[in-house]
Structures are given as C-alpha cells and as structure tokens.
Precorrin-3B C17-methyltransferase
Amino acid sequence: MDPGSALRSARDDGAVSEIAENSDRQSKGSLTVVGLGPGEAHWLTPAAQAAIEAATDLVGYDPYLARIPAREGQTRHGSDNRVEIERAGHALRLASAGRTVAVVSGGDPGVFAMAAAVFEALEAGNPAWRDIAITVEPGITAMLAAAARTGAPLGGDFCAISLSDNLKPWEVITTRLKAALAADFVICLYNPISKARPWQLGEALALAATQRSPETPVIFARAVGRPDEALRILPLTEAVEAAGTADMATLVMIGASTTRLIAREGQRPYVYTPRSVTKSPCVTSQGRT
C-alpha cells in the first residue's frame, strides 16, 4: 500500500494494492457493512457473523478489527479514527477489484458510523462503483444496549444526537438539542466528550437543566457489553457536575419529563419511560405521579 496512506494491510505484500489499482478491469466483488454491536459476542447477529466469515478483506478502525478473531487467508486493512471516507473508498476499490469486503463498525453501522461513509464515498466516487453489491448488516447500537441494561428508558419517543462537531458546527448541535428538549424526547447523546472537546457534554447537560426537572434521570452507560462496562443513573443536577467523567465510550441518555425510576433496595433502580403521554403514569415506588 501507499506508505503515506492512513490505511494499513495485515498482508501488505503489494498484491492488494495492485488489484485495487486495476479495479476497473476486474470483476465486481461485494461489500457488506457490518455492525459488531456494543461488545458482547452473543450480541453479534448471525448475518453479521456470516458476512465477516465470508470476507476476503476486513476494513475498519483498528480497535474494531481487534475484536474479530484472526482467520488465515483474510486480509485486514486497519486505520485510525477520522479517516472514514478514505476507509470507505478503499473498501469500494477492493470490492470493485472482485474482493469480498466487510467494513466493520461498532454498534450499528447506520448510526453515526460507517454505512453513511460508504454511501458518501459511493456517491462521490467512480461511477463504476454503483454496480457493486452493497449490503448493510445491522447491529445493536449503544443506546439500545444501554436501554436494555437499565430497564426501558426508550419506551416513549426518543432521539439520538451526536455531540461531535467534527462534521457539523456546534451551533447546529445546540439548535437540534434545544428542539429535542422542547419536544420532550428522551435524548441519547453519542460521542459526548473527547480530549479535543472536553466541555461539550457539560454545556449540553447545562442546557438540558434549563428545560428539564433537576430530578430528571440521566444515564451514563460506558462500554456496555465489554469487561470495563460501567453504568450510573444520576439526577440531572448531579449529571451536570459529572459530565467530565464521561468519555467517547460513554452513551449519555437524558430522560423525558415522563421518565420514571423504580427504586430497589440495595440495587440500581430500573428506569423506564411510559408509552403513553395521554394518561398520568401509574405511581411508582418513588411516589411520584
């Protein structure tokens, strides 16, 4: 491969590069975008597993590739973060050259992940790529894994917002967040904080505190399904102060006005959001109506 490329091949003997460079003259292969889920192997769907096993080439972010056991004869093309379009273009060139390619993504590939990058690269790239057979295999996204761990916080209407301003201005994020708060959605915040932007989650939660009750449940769900999993359920006032404890592996979920806690002695409470907003929810063990 090109020494200056952000993509690295585990079998970098020049063969793959030669194939990719001559892709227009090769038979068409296929490309499957695979969701690995949040972590636990049994959360990987059979269809996603089959796509991984059938692939001649795996393309993805290095930490995601590391979650897949090595297989003889399968070439891995790893890369760092923030090169999604380059990664997608590389995968499309491989598929155009006749390879069976699996692009791996954490969680669900269609939620702030590689499926959109593949189609962006497809639209802007070689017109011949549009003949490639492309499949997207869904996975369990972080908000669904976090919801399952804590009860049923997504039982009512909800939305997902990425706090990363790498691809959109912060002003767009805050405009959408204000609209979601005004509409009383449960709000799932992806990419809440990073070393380059340590302040954004705190600002988002402070904004939520201007429109939601101080006791609104907020879930911090970190690395759900992995050995370092950590779950915390905090009232909104405490969540604002705890914003700096989150990281990129954390999914933050802000409850709606109807989101409830069911207290349990000596255990983490259950969190749920009633399906109906036309009736008063039943009294919970907290005594709230």
In short: The mean pLDDT is 89.
